[in-house]
Amino acid sequence: MMAPKWLKDFSRADFLRSVGLYVTRDRLVFVRMRKNVLNVSLLEQQTEELPLGENQQAISELTGWIAEDVREIALKAENDSHERAIRQAILSLLPHFRAGRDPVFICVPQEQAVVQQLFFPQAAEANLQQVLEYEIERQLPFRREDIYYDYLPIGKKGDKIALYLFAIPKKSLTGLIDLLGSFGIKPSGVETTVTALANYFLFCKGEVSETATVVGSHDQTWEMIGLQSNVNGWKPSHNLLYSHWFPASDWAQGTGRELLYERLSQPSTHYNWGELGESFRSVNGKFLEYQDLLAIGNERLKGSDPIVDANVLPAIGVALRGVREAYFTTNFLRHEGADHSRGKALSIVNAVLVGLLFVGLIGWGVSYPIKDELRLRQLQNENQKLEPSVGVLRREETQLQKARKEATFLSDLGRRRGEVLRVLDELSRIVPTNAYLSNLRYRAGVLEIQGNAENASALIPLLERSPVFENVNFNAPSNRGRDNRETFSLKADLEKPKATPTKQP
User: Fold this and answer.
1) S-S: 104 plus which of 19, 94, 122, 149, CB 3.0-4.6 Å?
2) What is the pTM of this model?
C-alpha cells in the first residue's frame, strides 16, 4: 500500500538539533544541524587539522629487534600527542554548540573498523541478536568484551539471513569517548563512513529505484558502497547491497582491481565524494560519469552555507541521526546504553502532534451530532415563526379547493343541463297522472326515481318504450300500503345513441 507523502512527512516532523563529528587520523570535522518541522539546515561546519607528531615516520619504521618497552613508550608518546591535538580541537569547537545538551554523533573511517557480511540460517531470524553474540568470536579475531559492535540486517539471500557486522576495538574509541566525557559530552552514537555516507546519500537523493554506487576517498584509501530502494509500502526500505574498502594501491592494481571492475561494470548510477583516481574513471575503455555528492548536498541544503570540503559529508551523514533523517541506524555504543532512540517510532513532538490530531478527530466527530441538534433547533424556531403564515396559506388553500369543486359542479351542471331537461320532459310525458314521484336523482346517464302509484309494475313498460330510457328495473321490491297504492324505486339508464352503419359505395 502506497502511503500519501504528507502522511510520511508527518512522522518525520520535529524540532531538533544535532552535532556530527568525523574523526580521522589527521583531522576533526565538525557540523551542527537543525530541523524545524521538516526543514533541515546546516548551521555550522568547521574542520580542525590534527598535526602528526614529528616522530610519526620513525615510529612506523620500528622493527621487532627494538625492545618492546621502547616501542610502547614511543607509541604512547604519539598517542598522547594525538589526544592533545584532539583536545585542543574540541576546545576550539565548544563555543559552537551546547555541550551536554546537543546530541553528538561520531563517524570514524571504515579502515578503523571491521565491516563484514555474515549469513545465518533463517531459523536464527527470531533470535538474531543472541545468535550473533554467540558467533561473533568465531567470525572476528577479537574477544566479544574487547570490541564495540552492532549489526545491520539486509534481508534474505537465498535460504539464508544476511547482515552486515560492524565492529571496532574498544581501545580505538575509549580514548576519544573519555576525552569527550571530560568536557561533559556523552556521544549518542558512533558509526562508520559506510552508514554515514549511505544516510547522507539517501537524505539528498531520496528514494532510488535503480542501483546507486557511491565511491569516495579519504586518507589515501578508497571505499565503495552500493544502495537500492524499495519504494512500495508505508515506509520505503533501503538495501545496502555491498561495501568495500581498500588502500589506494589495491584499488589500482592489487586485489581490489578485479572487484572494482566488476562493480563499476554493473548497471548503476555513479556518485563520488573526494578526489577519484584514474582507476575509477573508466572500465574496459568505457568512460564513467559521476555525480558529485557535494553539489547534490548543497542543492538539498539550500539556504545553508555551501559545503566546500568533501570531508564534511560523513559528518553530515552521522549528524542526520540526531534530526531523525537517517535510514540506516548502527551504533557501536548501543550495548553501552547510549542510543536510547533505536527503534523509537515517535519523538515527543510527534507524540504531541499525534495527540492533537487525535483530539481534533474526536472533536470533529463529536461536533456532528451537536451541529445537527443546533440546526434542528434553528429550523424549529424558524418553523414557529412561519407557522401563522402557513396556517393562513392552508386556510386559503382549503377555500380555493372548495371554490374549485363548486366551479366544477356548476360547470358540469351547465354542460348536462340539456340532458336533465330532456329527462324531465320525457318523464312528464309518459308517467301517468295517478303516479307520484317523491325523489329523483340523475347522475352520469343513470336515473333513479322513487314514488308511489296504483300499479308500479305498469311503469316499467312505459319507460322501456320511451326512446330516452333503457334497462329499466326495480331497485327494491314494491310495497302496497293501506291506501291501496304501491311504493316503488326504479332505476333506468339513459339510452345511448346507436351507431349508424356506413353505406357501401
Assistant:
1) 19
2) 0.67
Helices (H), 335-469: 348-430, 459-465
CATH no. of 5-345: 3.30.420.380
Contact assessment for residue 223 and residue 245, using Cβ atoms and an 8 Å cutoff: yes
Q: What's the grid cell of residue 375?
A: 440546526
For the chain, the domains span 5-345, 431-494
Is 52 in a helix, a strand, or coil? coil
How many CA atoms within 13 Å lie on the side-chain side of 329? 18
Cβ atoms of residues 23 and 43 within 8 Å = no
Give strand ranges (E) for 183-293.
Answer: 189-192, 212-218, 221-230, 237-247, 269-273, 282-283, 286-287, 290-292
Question: How high is the mean pLDDT in each 10-residue block of the chain (505 residues)?
Answer: 61 87 93 91 92 54 49 60 88 90 94 92 88 89 92 88 94 92 93 95 86 84 87 74 83 73 85 78 79 92 86 95 91 77 53 75 79 86 88 90 85 70 85 88 85 87 87 86 87 76 53
Pick the CATH number of 431-494 from 3.90.1260.10, 2.60.120.280, 3.30.70.2830, 1.20.120.450: 3.30.70.2830
Phi/psi of residue 160, each to 5°? -120, 160
Contact 281, 288 (CB under 8 A): yes
User: How far lies 81's CA from each of 15, 37, 47, 174, 198, in Å?
Assistant: 39, 43, 19, 16, 33
Kindly list the distances between the CA atom of residue 503 and the CA atoms of 298, 496, 498, 500, in Å, as whole numbers in the listed order: 109, 21, 15, 9
Cα 464 to Cα 471: distance, rounded to the nearest angstrom: 7
Q: State the residue for C-alpha cell 349508424.
A: 500
Q: Which triple of cell numbers denotes residue 264? A: 563499476
184 φ/ψ sector (left φ>0, alpha ψ -120 to 50, else beta)? left
C-alpha cell at 373: 441538534
- Say which amino acid occupies 34: R
